[in-house]
Amino acid sequence: QTVVTQEPSFSVSPGGTVTLTCGLRSGSVSTRFFPSWYQQTPGQPPRTLIYSTNTRSSGVPDRFSGSIVGNKAALTITGAQADDESDYYCVLYMGSGLWVFGGGTKLTVL
Amino acid sequence: EVQLLESGGGLVQPGGSLSLSCAASGFTFSSYWMSWVRQAPGKGLEWVANMNQDGSDKYYVDSVKGRFTISRDNTKNSLYLQMTSLRDDDTAVYFCATVDGYALRYWGQGALVTVSS
Asked: Using the beta-carbon criterion (under 8 Å), do A52 and B47 form an inter-chain contact?
């Protein structure tokens, strides 16, 4: 069973920079997994932030960026704002039409 | 503007069946893969199923194989999820989403499915 790992929670100060990661319990994440990132606030559907590792979805501010750092996919928020306080999910394409989400990271801005 | 509107959610007893629909507008529905993703109350997102443009390729998470069927009608710009043998742990909000560039690009608001006796 494929397990995609994310930090359960993270905290950042307003104006600060935070990097959330997305890994595999067994193995390394690379661009061939086409990692994508989603932001979700309570009661709302997810919002697509980043796809194919580092491509911002339309309308997403450039303070959100995606990359591969070491053996993980990463979402970096530069200049965090109060309304960035959300849950963040990554998903990896495992091939053969199958996708697996990470467990999500609850980001607090304080 | 891309719009996805799920319908058909509700309360169903364990072992029962339910069918969800997703009405799409604002884009060429027949050109895109489509997905269902669910979220149990207070939990994370879980990918459930994918379907290609003409319905010839379908993929499912292991936990729903043999119980759920994804389908589409391109003439009606609609995606469906037929769910049978429902279990308590199928209780979730079910989202439909477009697939583009190996990403879930646009999402509906979701439909709540509650499996309980």
From this structure: no
Q: Does A34 contact B101 at a Cβ distance shorter than 8 Å?
A: yes
Task: Please give the Cα distance from A72 to A39 (Å, whole number).
Answer: 18
At residue A1, the pLDDT reads: 85
Q: From the CA of A82, how many Å to the nearest CA of chain B?
A: 22
A92 band by pLDDT with thresholds 50, 70 and 90 = very high
| Six-digit token string for A38 | 């989603």
Nearest to B28 by CA among B55, B7, B2: B2
Q: For residue A22, is pLDDT > 90? A: yes
- Identify the closest residue of chain A to B34 by CA–CA distance: A97
CA distance A56 to chain B (A): 11
* pLDDT confidence of residue B102: 87
Q: Which of A81, A66, A52, A56 is nearest to A19 (CA)?
A: A66
Q: What's the pLDDT tens digit per position in A93-103?
A: 998 889 999 99
Q: What is the largest CA-CA distance in chain B?
A: 41
- How many CA atoms lie within 13 Å of A108's alpha carbon, on the beta-carbon side? 5
